[in-house]
Prior knowledge:
mainly alpha; Amino acid/polyamine transporter I
Amino acid sequence: MSTHRIGLGQGTAIYVGAILGAGILALPALAAQKAGPASLLAWLALLLFCVPVATSFAALGARYPDSGGVATFVSKAFGPRASGAVGYWFYFALPAGAPVTAYVGGQYVAHTLGGGDRVTIAVAAVLLLAAFGSNTVGLQMSARLQLLLVGLLVVLLLIAVLTALPHARADNLTPFAPHGLGAVGQAASLLFFTFAGWEAVTHLSGEFRDPARDLRRVTMLTLAVIGVLYLGLALTCVLVLGPELANTNAPLTLLLQRGTGSAASVVTALMALLLTFGTMNSYLAGASRLGAALARDGVLPAALAKGHRPGEVPRRSLALLFALSAVVCVFALVTGTELGKVMLAASACFIAVTVAGLAAGVRLLPRGSSVWWGAVVAAVVMTVVLLFSGWFLLLPLALGGVAIGWSSWTARRGRTVPAARPAPLMAQEPEPAE
């Protein structure tokens, strides 16, 4: 069994990869359409909101480092049946979310370099295969590759910002709120999912050398990186592109054209590839380990439990995720299902996971501490966001019912599952967070 553990650099790269997505390539323009330069307030507000969400999950991961992630937190707070439902939400939403993410990346590459649906599908297929392949080799390979790709992505984004800044004009900040300050809320709603993903990597908490110490450091580093990249990019887009920002579908390409000229299209396509792959790589690393942990705990077939221990590779769980992703791809291509609906269904599940994790934080974290209050506020806000999922809430409800049904069936059969918990870390409660 491999004894590899991820450190600060690799952990930060995985966290950043889970938060960043291809949406950053287009969202500065979409937010500006809603609120003009005042959209900068929406970027700042959401970054501040990330602090209690991120620190809550970091505190929980430090206390209960396990491949079950949020499902483990919910089990500690509300019992195994609730945990199984939460695990199903995340695990079975990924085969819908990953192909759509790959397709979005393929679309951006095809549009940037010139190409039709065949190019889009080919790029999406390569991205999916690469992400699954990276995780099949193991977390050591996946984490090192993620560190390399995120480092390259950060360099490219900084180049885009720094080369364009000489073209910034302060008068592009006026009028600051052409559609009123109320439009800032609409922009924030649009930008919300660009800041999601903190729950995805809780499944890797047991893979850190020292979860109690490293998770907090990695979370702070990730918040710093995300803050610099998001606010720097959004501010530069507003100052450099001005009114032109709200009328483009590819703001980053325009920004690069101002700074680098003819190389803009190639650089933008490369960033789209890096953003898409990084997101899928991080989510697959977490989801595959979650599947093995669910099987270990009797919520999925026992054959999938192989690889649930820290340092192991959950290849059977990855194989199931790959098969389900392939089914979703074939179904979408044959039926012509709108990608937006597939993504909304997956998003409803991911938001439900976040709400459940934060609710567990309210139950488990030291009452009255700053991190506890952060979990309370974040749980209320995320619950409101979840309610806006509408009919798509039926999917997490259905998956939860299946999970509870499976657990009840295996319990009646008298099945026992050997649990392998990271005992030393879970047996020791860390100091209450201030």
